[in-house]
Write a structure and sequence with these properties.
The chain has 9 helices and no strands. It is mainly α. The chain has a single domain, classed as Rhomboid-like (Rhomboid-like fold), CATH 1.20.1540.10. It is globular. It starts with 15 loop residues before the first helix and ends in a 6-residue tail after the last helix. About 7% of the residues have low confidence.
């Protein structure tokens, strides 16, 4: 097992937030046939981001459609979250997940707005009614974790095709652009986590070395 997945105090990582999200998403999925307007309200379309951005960003994380790709996201998120939490703690996992979701959503919205403004796409693009799900956050989290792992063991490159495959499962059009952004954001966040981890290791080593220096009476 890579050193990336080894912590000083071994414990079973419980993906707390991922499990909460899965329960909420399962509830929405069961309710969806009776309340499609919730999906429309939660969609991160340009129109929704202009009228209720915070509600759209938050609700889209726990709102799903009936695509089978959602099940891939659920299972993948639980597995990836457990690994990241085990390696870095739940706070870093949560921040990476949320940052990936928010940044990829805003980035895609900017690209879509430019496409509509420049007449490369019709005005109907601003009213997409089913752009929901946690795939942006999941892909950013998975890519950040893979980036960290590769720095310790290059065999983790074997995981790159899996992330690429997941990013195109049951999606098309602008969502694929959002997935590409999420993966790119995950790489950046992975390097940021790596730098912070190295800085913490250096600081800990400096403290340990200082404790070995004898002091005068």
């Amino acid at each position: 097992m890579s050193r990336f997945l080894v912590r000083p105090h071994h414990r079973l990582a419980v993906p707390r937030v991922a499990l909460l999200w899965a329960v909420a998403a399962a509830a929405v999925l069961a309710w969806y046939p009776h309340s499609p307007h919730l999906v429309h309200f939660a969609s991160t379309s340009l129109a929704n981001l202009a009228t209720h951005p915070m509600a759209s960003l938050v609700l889209s994380l726990v709102t799903t459609t009936h695509g089978w790709g959602e099940w891939v996201t659920w299972v993948g998120l639980a597995v990836v979250w457990a690994a990241i939490e085990f390696a870095l703690g739940w706070r870093k996992a949560l921040v990476t997940f949320v940052a990936g979701h928010v940044l990829a959503t805003i980035g895609l919205a900017a690209v879509e707005a430019f496409a509509v403004w420049s007449h490369l796409a019709g005005h109907g693009l601003a009213h997409v009614t089913d752009d929901v799900g946690a795939s942006y956050g999941f892909l950013a989290l998975a890519t950040a974790g893979l980036t960290l792992a590769i720095r310790h063991d290059r065999r983790w490159w074997l995981g790159a095709p899996a992330i690429a495959a997941i990013s195109v499962i049951d999606v098309s059009g602008w969502t694929m652009v959002g997935h590409a952004m999420a993966i790119s954001i995950g790489v950046v966040l992975g390097f940021e986590l790596l730098m912070r981890r190295r800085a913490g290791t250096v600081a800990t080593g400096a403290v340990d070395s200082a404790s070995l220096v004898p002091t005068g009476a």
